[in-house]
Structures are given as C-alpha cells and as structure tokens.
Design goal:
By secondary structure, the protein is α+β, with helices and mostly antiparallel strands. The strands form 2 sheets. It has a 5-stranded mixed sheet, with helices on one face. The protein has a two-stranded antiparallel ribbon with strand order 6-7.
Length: 122
C-alpha cells in the first residue's frame, strides 16, 4: 500500500486520485488530505510510476513548476515550492456532490456513495 499526502493540493485531490489510480491500475482510498493506493493481490506498487503519474497530472494542469513530489518509503508528499496551497475556483454545487473513484457515479449524499462503493467489492 502506498500513501500520497495531498495537504497542499486538497482542492484537486479527487481529480488527482482518479488520474493516478487509472495510470498505475490501483485501488484508491480517499482520506483527509491524502489517499492510498493498493492492489487486490497485495502486489508492490512502483513508487516511480506513481510519482511519474502525479507529475504528468501537474503538467496537464500547468502547475508542475509550483509543486514538488517527494517520496519517503511508502509515503509520497506533494509539496508547494513557494509555500502556497493550490486553490481552485469551484462551483458551490461541486462541493455538495460526491463521486465514485471507480466508475464516476455521482450523488449528493455521502452515505449513498459509501453504499455504492461497497458494491464494487462484492
């Protein structure tokens, strides 16, 4: 299992976890200011591939020069180079929606999303 700390980029954490999980073919789990990546058969996830995917995403959103990706064993930190936290303007409706990281299912209710995500593991 690999953990990615997103404290400086929480506004894009959801998009980042989907992008990285798709690139490394891993199962993501969201937490406060971080996410974890794991596999069903407990294979080791290549840290370099995860770092490369994170950097690709920052290149895509044109923020690669503002953030550094640092690894320490099974923990990857995304740190702001200039000390500023990434802020994205978001619509108020986006803050009220929850999205499944596996299939993109969207709901207004956290409980409904939890039940939906459990269905992926049956």
């Amino acid at each position: 299992m690999l953990t990615v700390d997103c404290a400086d980029v929480t506004s894009i954490q959801n998009e980042l976890v989907v992008y990285v999980a798709d690139k490394v073919e891993a199962i993501p789990t969201l937490k406060n200011h971080q996410f974890t990546l794991s596999t069903l058969d407990d294979e080791i996830i290549d840290v370099e591939v995860v770092i490369s995917a994170i950097k690709e995403y920052f290149d895509f959103i044109e923020e690669s020069s503002n953030f550094a990706v640092i690894s320490n064993n099974d923990l990857i930190y995304i740190k702001s180079v200039d000390g500023k936290v990434l802020q994205r303007e978001s619509k108020s409706q986006q803050n009220q929606l929850f999205s499944c990281t596996h299939c993109g299912f969207v709901t207004q209710y956290q409980v409904e999303l939890t039940v939906h995500m459990r269905m992926h593991y049956l």
